[in-house]
Structure formats: structure tokens, C-alpha cells
Amino acid sequence: MSYDAIDDAFHFISDAPLGERRALVHRPSGKVFLASLKAGFDECPAGADTDPDYLPIPHRQELDPGKPLVLEFIRDNCPAELARVEGFFNRPGAFRNVKDLLRRRHLLDNWQIFEMQQMEVLLKQWCLAQGLMS
């Protein structure tokens, strides 16, 4: 099974709003099928939605730990801002406010690298839990 194909499909669906795109992996062959409602194409075989051999690849929002990931980064990179960042999550716009803070502290690039690495770890854990990798 190719992790790269699953990773590519994960990014394909995660680059659109939740539900707009989907991807299925065929467990026995490892082949990945893509679909996009907006673009009007669907590579998925008929009946794949009810066939247990086909597994939907999750959207980023389904794997993203959100606030705990942000707080982990803040604790490791600017712990003096921890209380402030926790306060952001008590009102709307928390992630925008966090990114603004990180931009002002010149940590936005570090955050993006950290977030990308953590999402890769989470996707690999999902693959292991689904028996797609060993």
C-alpha cells in the first residue's frame, strides 16, 4: 500500500471544504479513487460506498486535534503567551487570533511546519489503525 497515494488523496480532499471532495482507498489493491462534487467527476466504482473493501480517507478536519495542537506549540515556543492563547478559545476567531499572534512573534512559519508534521503523524496513525500500513 502506498502511503504517498493516501497522503496525496488526503491533501486533495482537505484542500476543499469538508464534504466537497472525497477519496476512497481499496484495501486489497491499495488503489485510491477521487471524487469532486464541484468539479463534477467521480472515479469511485459503483457500490464502493457500501463495500467494506473501500475505506473513505478522512478530511483534515476529521483528524485535526485543533486547540490541543495549538496549545502544545505555544507551550513549546512561547509559553509566556499560553494564558492569552487559551483565552482566544473562549470567543470566536481563535485560530485567526493565534495566527495573528504567531505572525507578530515571527513564529508563523514554525507553526506551519509543526502543524504539517503533526498532521502527517496523525494520518500515519490513522493508516495504521485501519490496517493500511504496518
Radius of gyration from the CA trace? 18 Å
- Characterize the largest beta sheet: strand count, sense, and whether it forms a barrel: 4 strands, antiparallel
Number of strands: 4
Which percent range fits the helix content?
Answer: 40-55%
Order of helical and strand elements: HEEEEHHHHH
Which stretches of 5+ consecutive residues score pLDDT under 50? none
Total number of distinct structural domains = 2
| End-to-end Cα distance | 10 Å
- Tell me, what's the shape? elongated
Q: Report mean pLDDT, rounded to a whole number.
A: 93
Helical stretch tally: 6
Description:
The protein has 134 residues and is α+β, with helices and mostly antiparallel strands. It has two domains: 3-58, no CATH class; 67-121, no CATH class. The protein has six helices and four strands; from the N terminus they run αββββααααα. Strands 3-2-1-4 form a four-stranded antiparallel sheet, covered by helices on one side. A hairpin with a 4-residue loop joins strand 2 (32-36) and strand 3. The radius of gyration is 18 Å and the shape is elongated. The model has no long low-confidence stretch (mean pLDDT 93).
What is this structure's SSE topology?
Blueprint: H1 3-14, E1 21-26, E2 32-36, E3 41-42, E4 54-56, H2 60-63, H3 67-77, H4 82-88, H5 94-104, H6 108-129
Antiparallel strand pairs: 1-2, 1-4, 2-3
Summarize the structure.
The chain has 134 residues and is α+β, with helices and mostly antiparallel strands. It is built from 6 helices and 4 strands. The N and C termini lie close together (10 Å).
